[in-house]
Every structure is written in C-alpha cells, then in structure tokens.
Amino acid sequence: MSDIQLYLLEVDKNKPEAQSTAAQSAQKLESKGLKLIDLITSLEPYINDKTDGNLRAKSVGYLADVLSAVAPKVLSGQERRLLGDFILGRIEGDTEGIGASARALLSLEDLGKWDAETAQRVLTTFVNHANPLRQFKLQTERYSVVQLVDLLLAKYREPMKKLHESDPEFMPSFIAFFEGEKDPRNLMIIFSLLQVPMTEWDIQPNAQDLFDSVFNYFPITFKPPPDDPYGITAQDLKDRLRACIAANSDFAPHAFPQLLDKLDSTSMNTKRDVLQAIQACVVGYEAKTINLYSVTLWDALKFEILNVQEEDLAVESLKALTLLGAKLAETSEGPLNAYLRPIIKECNEHLEDAPTKQSEASGRILYSVSMGGQVVADKVVKGVVPTLFNLYNSSESITKRRGLLEVFNQILRAYVDLEDLQPGINTEAVQVHAGEGLDAMVRALINAPKAEVSFRLTSLNGLAGLVSVRKALSDTQVDSAVDAVTDIVLHERIEGHGDIRTQAIQSLTEMAHVVPHAVRDRSVPAFMVEMPDCPTEDAVPGPVLEAFAQLSTERQVFDTVTVRLKNKYNVARHQGAPASYQRALLLGLLYAFTLGAPAREDGVILGKYYTEYAEPLVTEVSNGHRESSTLEIIGRLVNALLRPQGVHFQTNVYSKNLDWMTASSNKENADISLTPFTLHYYAALRPEVTDAADIVPLLQAQATLALNPSSDRAYSGTVLRLLSLLVNKFANPKTMQATLEASGIEVQTLLSNNPTPQATQVAFAIVKALLIQGKTGKLATQYLQVLLDLLATCEKETAHRFAILLAPDEILVKENHCLVSGLYKQKVFNQTVPSLTENVRLCGGANAPGPSSTSEGEVGKPNKKSNYLIALSGILRWLPYSVLEPALGSLIPPLLQTLDLSTSSTSSPSSSHQLAEESEVKRSALVIFESVLMHDPRLLEEHVSSLVGRLLGCSNSANPASSTGAGTKARIGSSAAGEGAVTVRAKSLQCLALCPKQFRREKVIPFRREVVKQLLGCLDDGKRRVRAEAVRARTAWLGLDEGVDEED
C-alpha cells in the first residue's frame, strides 16, 4: 500500500500512526526517495474525488502532516511556491479540508518566508472563499485558519495594511469572516489579531462594524469546564476583549454610549466589566476624544460613588475618575477645566451638608481626581479648599468641622501620594491654605473637648498629612505641628474613651519620616525632659519611655532614639536609679532593636550596633553587675544584635567572653542568676563558633543547678531551657550519648532508682532537645520509651510534663541556629500515640461513661490510666489536625475518657497550679473534638451519647453558680486556675452548640430535652463568656424544632 493509502486507512482509527506514516513520506522526500511531483500525483485520486468530501479533506490533511514533518531546506523556493499555489487553488474551488489547508500553509511559511504578494493572496483567498468561518463546524478546522490569519497579521503587517488600503471591500469581508465565532480558544486569538487593524490601520469608515464585531461578546459570561486542558479563563477573554474595545479612538461614539447603558445593569459582574472597560478606554483613546465624553462619564460614575452598592464598584469608578483627570491634564487647560468644573461644584454642595455619606464620598472623589497629577490637584485645591474653610469657620458644630477636615485630609493625602509617584511636585497651591489648615487643626487638637475623640483624631491625622506635604509648611509651622503632637504624647493622661496617645505616637513617627530634623530638635529634647536621670521608685515615666521607644520604628530617627536611651541608661545606672527605671530603659532599647528600624547591610543588622550597645552591657555583666531584673533583657538584646552576624564576628565575640563565662559557669561555683543571660547569649551563637570541649563543662554546671533541689525555683525553667539548647545545637549528634554521660544527664541514668522530680525534669528537657534535633533518632526513640515507661508508676506531675515535649519554645527555633527537624512532630506522634492509646485500652473501661473510672480515690490501674490519658492529651495538644486525622478512630475513646478526669478540690497554691494543668488537659481534648465536629462529624456519630453527656458535665464542672458554693466561686475567680476552668466550660459549650448542626438530626433529637434543661444552669454561670456560649448552645439545640414543654 502507498503512504497515502496507509494514512487514509489509519487517520480515523489511529491518528498518531497516521502522522507517523506522513513523517515517513517526509523522510523519503528528504532522502530523495520520493519526488514532490510523485507525492502530489499520489494524492490525485483522493483529493479530486467529487463524491466524497471527507476523503478530499483527509487527503489535504495528509499533505499538511507531510509538510509539517519536512525538514528545512528540503523543498526549494520554487517547490514551496508551487505547493502554495496548489493549496490556494484548491480552496478557491473546494473548501473541504480548510483546516488542513491552513495547517499546510502554516508549515510552508515556516519552511520559508513569503513575499508580500503571496501573503496578501493567502489572506484574500480565505476571506473570499471561506467566509464566514463559522460555516465550518469543527473547532479544530477553524482554529488552524485563525492561527494562519494571526500569523499573517503578525509577520506581514505592511502587506496586510496595503491590502486594506488598496481594496475598500476588503475590510467589510474581513470583519464578517470571524462573525459568530463562539469557541474561547479561537476568540482568544481573534481578539488579539484584530488589534492590529484596530491600532495600525485607518478604520474610520468601518469603525462601527469593527467595534460591533467585538462588542457583541460584551460582557463575557464564559465559564471554563472543570477539566479544560487549555486553561483559558473568563478573565483572559475579558482582558483581550477590553483591549479591543479600547484600541481606537474612533470607537468612542459607539463604546461610551453602550458601556454607560450597560452600567445600569442589575448584574454586579456586568458593572465591574463596564467600569474596567471605561478605564481602558480612557487610557487608550486620545485626549481630544475623551474631552467629548468627560462630563457624561462623570455623571454616570458619580452615581456608583455617591450611592455605593458594592465597595469594589466605587473603587473602580474612582480609578476611572483618576484616569480621566490624568488624560485631560495632557491637553490644554480648557478640557481639564470643563471636566473639573461639575466635580468641584457637586463636591462643594455636598460639603455644605457635611458630615454625610455624600460628603465622605466627596472626599474620596476629590482624592481620586487629584491623583490625576499635580495640575489636577492644584485646580482641586483652588476650587474646593477656600469653600471648605469658609464653611469651617462659619460653623460652630464640631461634627460638621470634623467632616470638613476629613475632606481636607483626603486632598492632603493626594499630594503625599503624588510625591511618592512624582518626586519634586510643586505644592504652592497647598501652601496658600496650609497656615489656615494648621491653625484649625492645632486648635482642634488642643482646645476641643477630650470626649470628641473622632474630631481630635481627624485633626491629628491632618497634621501628619500637612507636615508630609513637601514644603507646604514653613520651618516654624512644622515646629508648631510637631510640638502640638509631642505635647499630646507627653502630657495627656486620659484612661479609656478620649485617649489618643497611641495615634499621636503614630503621627509623630510619620512626621519623623518627613521632617526628621524637627523631631530630633523639638520632640527628642521634650522627651528627655520627661525622663529624669534618677527618678523615685513611684515616678518612673513608663508611658513616656514606651512612646519614645516607638519612635525607633522610623529609620530617620532610630539612631537618635537609641543613643539617647543608651546614654540615659548609663547615667541612671551610675546615679543608682531604681532598678525598675533601668529595666524600663533597657526594654526601650530592646524594643528599638527588635521592632524598630536599625540600619542593615544585605538584610543583616549592622555589627556596629553590637559593639556600641550590647558589648558595654556584657562587660558590665562580666564585672559582676548582675541585677536579676535586667539580666534577661540584656541577654535578649545581645541575642537580637549578635544572632544575625556572621561566623567571624561571632567568633571574636565568643573568644572575648569565653574566659569570664567559663568561670561563671564552673561546676563548683555556677551562678544560677546568670542563666537568663547565658540562655539568650548561647541562643544567638552559631554552632560552628563554639568548641565542643567548652560545652561539656557548661552542661555539667547547668546539670548541677537543675538537679539541686535547693536551687532557686524561679530560675529552674530557664536552666532546663538552656540544657535543651546546648544539647540541641552544640552537642555532637555522633557522640551524643557519651556527651550526656560525661555531663551527668544521661536519661536512663537519671530515671533509674526512683528518680527525683528534678531528674525527671532534666530528662524531659534532654529528650525534647533530641526530638527537635532529629539527628539521633535511635537514641531519642530509646529515651522516649523510657519516659513512657515511667507512666505506669509515676505521679500525675510527671504525666503532665509530656506536654512539654512538643510545646513551642522561642529558643529552640531555626532563627537561633538550632537544629529543627521538619517532621519531628509526626515522628513523636507515631512513637507515642499508638502506645498510649493501647495502654489506655488495656487499663479497661475504654467506653464506660462517667468520671468514676478515673476518680482520685482509686488506686492501681485507674491512676495509671489517668497518667496515660494526661500524657496523651499533652502530646496531642500541639499537633495540627492533619497529623491527627488518620488516627482519629482510635483516639476518640481515650479522648472521651480524658473529659472524665477529676479536678483537684483543695485551695493550696500547688493545687491551683495542678488545677490549671488539669483544665489544660481537658481543653486540649475539647479543641480536638471541636475540630472533628467541624471537619469529620461522622467519626463521632457512634459516640454521640458519650460525647453529649461528657460535654454537659464539663460545662457545669466547677461552675461558680452551682452547688459548690461561694467559697469555690471566690477561689476560682481569683486564680489563673479558675480562668482555665472557665475556658473548659466555654469550650465544652462551643462543642455542644456544634452537635445539632453537624450531626444528623435523628442522632441528637433523643438528647435534646435533657441538654436544654441542663443548659439552664449554665445561663447563671458567674462568667459572661460562659453565659454567652450557653445561650448559643441552647439556641442551637432549641432549633431542632421539637415541641418544648412550658417548663423548658
């Protein structure tokens, strides 16, 4: 069989095989095994078959596939021309296989560029003989033709333009060619190729037809199918269509009337598309064209702003006003004045009624219009601001004055934003009214009643805006504005309503960005006056210090703030100022370097800051000045400045401090009070900076402190965190066990023979470090199992410590150069949770409801079971729901029993701590139940009875309004433990409220009456938060629509 016969046989059944056959023919052409004339001759019986159009189309398809596989330079120029003439001649007499003909021509053009005449003939052939394109039903055929036309308009722009100029009948036919196309893939190309004639040809005689040909698709309502392989979205089509509509100013007489007509649509999506199209037209059309429609557009757009239906529609309308102003600013003053005149008039009319929604919208309009450029903004100022201040001065109403100042602030904001976009703009128009505005706002800020918060805040924002407008104020006026705001920060002391100090500090910081010299010269000295060198204990200026430190968030005054704080601290220390004052000054420095704006190089804080600020403090500490209240702050400051530095810098610092820190951390004379500083110091260091030989003595010293029962308990938590840090970051994972043994903190040794509470705490700290590190998997697993084995015999306190293993720690993080495994939480889950759930099951009573199974009075298994439940809750507390989800089936029974755990009833301080821990255990379980109810309620359907009963029990447990009495109420209400119990009650009620919403109705209806009845008690709870949740829960259960007795 010949290649053409094989192709025709396979093309419908196996297209890849058919294309392979065509490729073989192409190879024969290349190897001269087949002549082009023979190839064409072999097509003749099929391509000329008058009885079978499908056969003719397939024959052309064969030719197209052969040509697409032919290598360059195989066909001569003459052969390509002959083939082109052959294909075009066929189209003139027979359009069967039009898509294949287009593909063949595309391949020919790819093999060699056409001359202008050929390109013109190709386009005219298709336009004259395949018009309209929609007559061809297959999208793939039309797609090939559209691709060919797109290529012609992209690569042969000049010949196509000459074709249009030479033949007045061409353009109408060309427009009609694409009429009625509906396929998104084709339309994407059509919208793109039509922009060539729209933007480059003289289309004035055909403007309406060309415009209508694309506007017929407006608005786009296309929704792509879920499995669309082409990835074409409605937004893609909208963008291309919008570009067509805005392509030529000749479209304006047709575009604007139709767009404004569609702006009245009730569809919000249509309105959005219209507004975006208007914006595109304003940008794309000539200014002289826009001038003809500017007032008409304003009349239509203002409705969307003054009568807001959707906020985003108002925003889009405001953008259009901005673009209109910017476009008309390119012309002479006449068109711009004509556009602005009705806007200014309408806004001034609304200002007379301020404050109203319309006056507020007028402020937005004036801001947006002013953003069109400095020329526009100047005209707005001249047209609006005199009227605004006349109204301001003639009114005694504070509310009206506030509304007017808000509009003035909008105009000022426009100048500030314009300065960012066009640095160096002229602000003379604002200067004329700046003095009047400054006086009005300073008077409002100082003299207005303190209860008029919104008025004073408006004035405050206005002052910041006025100062931010470059050269609007003289130096004296700037000083006046800065003084007024500084005075608010320093001297106003209003609690609750009327306090505007926070906003005043923010305004002062904004001013510091624009006029740093004024803030340095005026505000900083004023702050220093309020911060004496040595105040009395009860006269520490905390609020002033806090405000001063917040100025450091502005880079321009950062160094001034930090230098003054450092100097003030040095003076205060030498003069023996109260420790609370020294601490406050150090906290100010810490705030500046952690939340402020220090200078950086390549994103890293400059090393000079450590040398100038931290190093003197470290020297003080090394010399024995170790005030307990400031050591941790100094450590945190050192950490903030040292942590980002490179290895070389840190090595120098470490070497300088090694001797005195080693002496202070000696095993025999370790100073536990230094631990807070040591913790943050070592947290800042990179692992490669230290020597392993230096770490073991430090571990030994800290182990001695941690294991000593007489050590100061105030520092015990810090010592344990330091042990975790040293083990995680500095101990070599390859010799970890040997290091722990040498340091006296090997876990198995610590926990052998009735371990002390201190030894248990150290063991948990070590295991936590190893788990997070993830480099000693076998050893960490072994130690973790040792901790799990403790649960069979230990006290509850040990079980509660399992929560520490996964608890977040600000020290053990990658920012502190610690080793943090990305999967350590999942590993801990897999190593602990199956064992704990199995042990709970083996203890018995896995599904027995009620608290009796774990009561305090029982011994043996029930106590062991409590430990397992507490440990399980502690592990699960810090895990994301995605980790828990696969194991929820086995977790639900033990979590239900966790809700039965008893609560301590004594009132000793230690018991309060225990009560808080027990409340946290229940809260953890309740949080998980809440997540399950929200995401996978079906998992709980078989436990509905147990769950609802336990939730009711938790919602009433330790209820201050219940029968436990007033003494319990007082005790719970005044302790942190009581707050934990309140959280449990509130969370259980939240879960109860979810039950009727998430479970099937038949599952919860049986419990409705009892739940509604018991929730009555919760409505009398002593805590408002609990009462609110009780109301929501009861409403949810009452909503099940079952008849309720009168008493309910």
TrEMBL record:
Residues 40-307 form the MMS19 N-terminal domain. One of its GO terms (cellular component) is nucleus. The keyword DNA damage applies. Keywords: DNA damage, DNA repair, Nucleus, Repeat. It comes from the Eukaryota. One of its GO terms (biological process) is DNA repair. It holds the Pfam family MMS19_N. InterPro entries: ARM-like, ARM-type_fold, MMS19, MMS19_C, MMS19_N. PANTHER family: DNA REPAIR/TRANSCRIPTION PROTEIN MET18/MMS19, MMS19 NUCLEOTIDE EXCISION REPAIR PROTEIN HOMOLOG. Key component of the cytosolic iron-sulfur protein assembly (CIA) complex, a multiprotein complex that mediates the incorporation of iron-sulfur cluster into apoproteins specifically involved in DNA metabolism and genomic integrity. In the CIA complex, MMS19 acts as an adapter between early-acting CIA components and a subset of cellular target iron-sulfur proteins. Belongs to the MET18/MMS19 family. This is MMS19 nucleotide excision repair protein.
